[in-house]
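ok new one. same drill as before - structure tokens go in, u give me an amino acid for every spot. 198 of them this time. try not to just spam alanines like last time pls lmao
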């Protein structure tokens, strides 16, 4: 079996040091993963003023729990699982009415969301189309139930694979696919209901 890349070996060494209580080593890990965790939390919470505090809480939880990390999943997956669980608890406690400016969505955007973005082809503006779709999905997610928001955020905004989502959530890949399908249908139904004035 091939040796891990130098970056992977360095990460393993940092984790082992953290498991012995080395705060400086954990600081290095936190620096590496801060941006992706910040992005994940922001997509889930939609409250810019609170994201920084939530991210801090997640890293504190990770530091406390790191002795239990067993290297069976990637560190990114393990840390994402902590982040998702923490955000889930936060969202359940702080359910707030959500964004309602879906008038910006045309029929094409509605079809894209209904299909879950599968088979996306960049339009004439390529990257701009992808950003616009991500923005529309983000607005819809802001109204979605917590469970739907988490699984759709991981897939549509974080671009995680079904296998990665399964690793983070502890679900089987087939269950993730079913939940994604149902969550997309509920999100589209919510959009259509809003369009009708409901």
């Amino acid at each position: 079996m091939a040796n891990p890349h130098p970056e992977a070996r360095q990460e393993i060494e940092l984790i082992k040091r953290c498991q012995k209580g080395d705060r400086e080593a954990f600081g290095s890990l936190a620096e590496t993963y801060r941006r992706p965790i910040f992005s994940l939390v922001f997509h889930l919470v939609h409250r810019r003023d609170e994201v920084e505090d939530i991210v801090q809480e997640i890293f504190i939880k990770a530091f406390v729990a790191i002795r239990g990390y067993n290297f069976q999943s990637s560190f990114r997956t393990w840390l994402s699982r902590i982040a998702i669980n923490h955000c889930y608890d936060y969202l359940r406690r702080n359910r707030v009415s959500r964004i309602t400016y879906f008038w910006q969505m045309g029929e094409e955007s509605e079809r894209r969301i209904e299909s879950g973005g599968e088979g996306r082809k960049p339009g004439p503006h390529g990257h701009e189309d992808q950003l616009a779709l991500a923005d529309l999905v983000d607005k819809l997610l802001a109204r979605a139930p917590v469970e739907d928001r988490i699984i759709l955020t991981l897939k549509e905004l974080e671009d995680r694979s079904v296998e990665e989502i399964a690793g983070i959530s502890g679900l089987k890949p087939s269950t993730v696919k079913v939940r994604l399908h149902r969550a997309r249908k509920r999100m589209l139904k919510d959009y259509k209901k809003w369009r009708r004035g409901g």
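Residues 23-45 form the longest helix (23 residues). and btw The chain has a mean pLDDT of 81.
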